[in-house]
Specification:
Layout: H1 5-12, H2 16-23, H3 33-45, E1 63-68, H4 72-77, H5 79-94, E2 98-103, E3 116-120, H6 125-132, E4 138-141, E5 151-155, H7 157-170, E6 176-184, E7 191-193, H8 195-206, E8 215-218, H9 222-236, E9 243-246, H10 249-261, E10 271-276, E11 289-293, H11 295-312, E12 319-322, E13 324-327
Parallel strand pairs: 1-2, 1-3, 3-4, 4-5, 5-12, 6-8, 6-9, 9-10, 10-11
Antiparallel strand pairs: 6-7, 11-13
Helix pairs in contact: 1-2, 1-3, 5-11, 7-8, 9-10
Amino acid sequence: MAATLKDIAQAVGVSLATVSRVLNYDRTLSVSDHTRKQIFEVAENLNYSKLKRRPILANKQLKIAVVQWYSKTKELDDLYYMSIRLGLEKRSEQRHFITMRTFQNDLSKIDDDVDAIIAIGKFSPQQVQALAEMTPNLVFVDQDQLANGYDSVVTDFQIAVQQVVDYFTQQGQTRIGLLHGTEWTTDEQSEVLDPRYLEFKRLMQARGQYDESCVFAGDYTNQSGYAQMTHAIETLGDQLPAAFFVTNDPMAAGALKALREADIDVPQRVSLIGFNDTTIARYVFPELSTVHVNTELLGTTAVDLIENRIQTGRTTPQRVTVGTSLVLRESTLQQ
């Protein structure tokens, strides 16, 4: 009877992911020549055959585990991740794949015979390793793991932030405030910096317009958007910028509430642009200008990458970057 990757991993004392990458001649993997030799020798002795990695037959129903870093409650507070999940579930249904949903803190619910994992959100190196040991067919959504050898689906934050800054600049608003988020992975091992903050800072510094006093950090919730904008109003007073970029819609909705309570007119005194274009953007007053992210496409692309990897036997990791568009509504001046 032919051996499996798990058999080889157990015999050598390394992870399943390490065995998979060594047998596929991944020279970017940091592993000793002795370990590589051991893996190949054990594979030969145990009669391992790559025939085990042939494309899965068309009539086999793929089983995909969807691992979320957000809890059910937190997902309802920020519809961005829910939209991604619904997109991938819709694509899976179209392809007649089976999806099972779980959370990062409960990986025990993932079946041993799962064909692939789609991980939505932010994960620490330790969490990534734990997922990789379950299957080599792994895709990350909203976190770039290409450098670590895994398929990734991400948003083009660089162009998105540039569009926001360019728009404000064209309106004559060169002093731009920022409300951004910061958070930690669920195991509290890695801080996750907001890529929109990093790009905003880089771009504004290059233009000689970055002002640290106009930058405020929250935690992506509506409450933090309200609190940080209230803080900005109190500390900056008459020097409050005429334009604010807020890096997600729930925070932007909270910021709008703070401005309204302070009798600061939007958009005449302060223009505001959010990010993601979730449904909340159209149900606040005034309606929120925001960067539209095609969250459904993020989800469907992840499923497509899984299908391609399994059906073709592809082992080279891919990164797919999804573009954005700026949607202008009532919260910004439009000339």
